[in-house]
Automatic annotation (TrEMBL):
<feature type="domain" description="ABC transporter">
    <location>
        <begin position="348"/>
        <end position="595"/>
    </location>
</feature>
<dbReference type="InterPro" id="IPR027417">
    <property type="entry name" value="P-loop_NTPase"/>
</dbReference>
<feature type="transmembrane region" description="Helical">
    <location>
        <begin position="12"/>
        <end position="31"/>
    </location>
</feature>
<dbReference type="GO" id="GO:0015658">
    <property type="term" value="F:branched-chain amino acid transmembrane transporter activity"/>
</dbReference>
<feature type="transmembrane region" description="Helical">
    <location>
        <begin position="90"/>
        <end position="113"/>
    </location>
</feature>
<keyword id="KW-0812">Transmembrane</keyword>
<keyword id="KW-0472">Membrane</keyword>
<feature type="transmembrane region" description="Helical">
    <location>
        <begin position="244"/>
        <end position="267"/>
    </location>
</feature>
<dbReference type="InterPro" id="IPR003593">
    <property type="entry name" value="AAA+_ATPase"/>
</dbReference>
<feature type="transmembrane region" description="Helical">
    <location>
        <begin position="214"/>
        <end position="232"/>
    </location>
</feature>
<dbReference type="GO" id="GO:0005524">
    <property type="term" value="F:ATP binding"/>
</dbReference>
<keyword id="KW-1003">Cell membrane</keyword>
<dbReference type="Pfam" id="PF00005">
    <property type="entry name" value="ABC_tran"/>
</dbReference>
<dbReference type="InterPro" id="IPR001851">
    <property type="entry name" value="ABC_transp_permease"/>
</dbReference>
<keyword id="KW-0547">Nucleotide-binding</keyword>
<dbReference type="Pfam" id="PF02653">
    <property type="entry name" value="BPD_transp_2"/>
</dbReference>
<dbReference type="InterPro" id="IPR043428">
    <property type="entry name" value="LivM-like"/>
</dbReference>
Length: 610
């Protein structure tokens, strides 16, 4: 019975719950909520806005930045000063506050992000410490440490808002959360998560890490600015203490406690904070201690905050209700034909490439050429430089000497996201898949550079975005079908077994319609069926016109797939040619396979590979 109710509840789309909750918050005063609690909900909404900004930059873009308190101050003082000057319209104040906060975010974010590592955390931390001093310097206008008073009550197109101000706060908060939700579920949101987990993967998909992190931080400034304007109009008085270090810690604690990688975590964290410690005046003295406690509970004990706990509970109930389908082997005939749209492959030409790491010469004047419509395999013993070669083609390392050309364009000086934009897609030796995304989302994320669509169009759900999102899903479903994994589309991608995670990586690279496809040891961990599927897909890609460069230890697979084999040993190309030639090459037999070229084993290799 209980499980039946659970199944029914799970059948209701998630947005319905969000809508009901939003309506309950919006209409709370009409439904009889008293004035004191209405004020608490209003303050919780304002805090939730600030926390959501931190979630965008910390939880999604992976950058610990505490500057939200400063942007909150920027928004509040912008609204306050406008109000003093007689500009009481709340719409004007909100727009101005959001814009000023955005400018503060961009200006303070650039140096912090340029320096990399912990720099943004440090610069944003100092920004908070500077807020009271900056306000004191402009004391004539801001009232300095005494605070800014003399604000006029807010108006809406000339009408006094009065006690209806609550609806403005609730309305702005709900609107922002819709915007944020639209953003995080879009391809840009997945790109943020990818970036957080693996900047290397994000770059390989054409994402500019600096630009994206700045965008996350700067976008997070907007709700903080809006919250500032709303806060300033709540009591028509603001003072520097409201925006200091204690507030910044409260925001961080709420974010971590609620779950920073979650839209709803911001609401949950802010609500707990507002209805818990913030309500009591006796608590002020111990504020930092309590926030520290929340940080420990949220960050260390819960790891992922309360939303993660809720998700785990939901999964547990799903399992109890028999709703979880455990990953099962791939569906369908592994050898079934796969159709791939024609691909405009590009010639990959590497000439005299050298690279050393300290005294270790990983590549010595190595050259290779991979052509469209052909599978070129790169083989060699462990440590011979194969992965280094792929990493250099992708722009992860700079060359000591030599050139790399894709379709005639020299790319050896390009940053890795620019190489990706030239049409290079790759898989990784250790599968690199963002956490908490579904199989379908993970595969579709490979299309980030295909059919580009702006963040604004994603936020506003414009027709262009809807079309791109539809194409992303259709294309990802099609490729998943061809690798027999379409039934796993809604599984958590990282929960798949190794062979399937590798296949997922191949699918993710394929949806990008790459002109050059680099596959790094994808066969290890795959079972026989998966190997057949993989071979079928690679042949289909080749026949569609892609340039495939395959780094592989599975010699049998290499011999059955490759048109040309290039053999590396100690960073040097020691042999290249068609499979029939390579399998008899004495140096390949002795250095790669460790077989005496004249012994009986050499003949065995030939029969094995027939
Ligand atoms: N980032 C790095 N820093 C220092 N040395 C490196 C780095 N990357 C590779 N090397 C060294 O370069 C040499 C070539 O390594 P690489 O990983 O390219 O070989 P590989 O042929 O791909 O080996 P495997 O088959 O084991 O993956 C090795 O000696 C390795 O230790």
């Amino acid at each position: 019975m209980t499980m039946q109710i659970w199944r029914t509840l799970r059948g209701v789309p998630g947005w319905v719950y969000a809508l009901v909750f939003a309506a309950a918050v919006f209409f709370a005063p009409m439904m009889g909520l008293d004035a004191a609690n209405t004020r608490q909900v209003q303050l919780a909404c304002i805090l939730a806005l600030v926390v959501s900004g931190l979630n965008l930059s910390l939880g999604y873009a992976g950058e610990l930045a505490l500057g939200q308190a400063a942007m909150y101050a920027a928004g509040a003082y912008t609204a306050g000063l406008l109000s003093q000057e007689g500009h009481t319209d709340i719409v004007v104040q909100l727009i101005a506050a959001g814009a000023v906060a955005l400018i503060v975010g961009v200006i303070t974010g650039i140096p912090g992000l340029r320096l990399g590592s912990w720099s943004l955390a440090m610069t944003s931390f100092f920004l908070i410490l500077l807020v009271p001093d900056i306000l004191a310097i402009f004391g004539g206008k801001t009232g300095g440490r005494n605070g800014l008073s003399g604000m006029e009550p807010p108006t809406f197109f000339g009408q006094d808002i009065g006690t209806d101000f609550y609806y403005v706060v609730a309305g702005v908060t709900i609107a922002w959360f819709v915007v944020m939700r639209n953003l995080v579920v879009s391809r840009h949101g997945i790109a943020f998560r990818t970036l957080k987990q693996s900047p290397v993967l994000a770059r390989s998909q054409g994402v500019s890490v600096f630009r994206m992190k700045l965008l996350g931080y700067a976008l997070g400034a907007i709700p903080a600015g809006l919250a500032g304007a709303l806060f300033a109009n709540t009591d028509l008085f603001i003072a520097p203490e409201a925006f200091g270090f204690t507030f910044a810690t409260a925001v961080l604690a709420a974010s971590i406690l609620g779950g920073s990688a979650s839209v709803y975590g911001a609401v949950l964290g802010a609500a707990i904070m507002q209805f818990g410690p913030n309500q009591s005046t006796a608590f002020q003295e111990y504020a930092l201690v309590v926030y520290g406690g929340f940080l420990i509970v949220g960050g260390v004990l819960l790891s992922g905050g309360l939303t993660r706990l809720i998700t785990a509970g939901r999964r547990w109930l799903d399992r109890k209700a028999g709703m979880n389908t455990p990953p099962v082997p791939a569906h369908g005939d592994p050898a079934a034909a796969v159709t791939v749209d024609p691909i405009d492959g590009a010639v990959l030409e590497v000439t005299d490439l050298s690279k050393s790491f300290g005294g270790n010469q990983a590549l010595r004047s190595a050259s290779l050429r991979a052509e469209p419509g052909r599978v070129t395999a790169l083989i060699g013993p462990n440590g011979s430089g194969k992965t280094t070669m792929l990493n250099m083609i992708c722009g992860f390392y700079t060359a000591d000497a030599g050139t790399i050309a894709i379709g005639g364009t020299e790319v050896q000086r390009f940053s890795s996201h620019r190489v990706a934009r030239e049409g290079v897609a790759r898989t990784f030796q250790t599968p690199n898949i963002p956490e908490h995304v579904t199989v379908l989302e993970a595969v579709a994320s490979g299309r980030y550079m295909t059919d580009r669509s702006s963040m604004l169009s994603a936020i506003l759900r414009l027709p262009g975005y809807r079309r791109t999102a539809r194409n992303d899903v259709a294309e990802a479903e099609r490729v998943l079908e061809s690798v027999g994994m379409s039934h796993l589309r809604d599984e958590v991608a990282t929960s798949l077994p190794l062979g399937m995670r590798r296949m997922l990586e191949v699918a993710r690279a394929v949806v990008a319609q790459p002109r050059v496809l680099l596959l790094d040891e994808i066969a290890s961990g795959m079972d026989e069926d998966e190997l057949v599927r993989l071979a079928t897909l690679i042949r289909a890609l080749r026949d569609a016109g892609a340039t495939v460069l395959l780094v592989e230890h599975n010699f049998r697979l290499v011999l059955s797939l490759a048109d040309t084999i290039i053999v590396l040993a100690q960073g040097e190309v020691i042999a290249q040619g068609p499979p029939a030639e390579i399998e008899r090459h004495p140096r390949v037999l002795s250095e790669y396979l460790g077989i005496d070229p004249d012994g009986p084993e050499a003949a065995e290799v030939e029969t094995l590979t027939r």
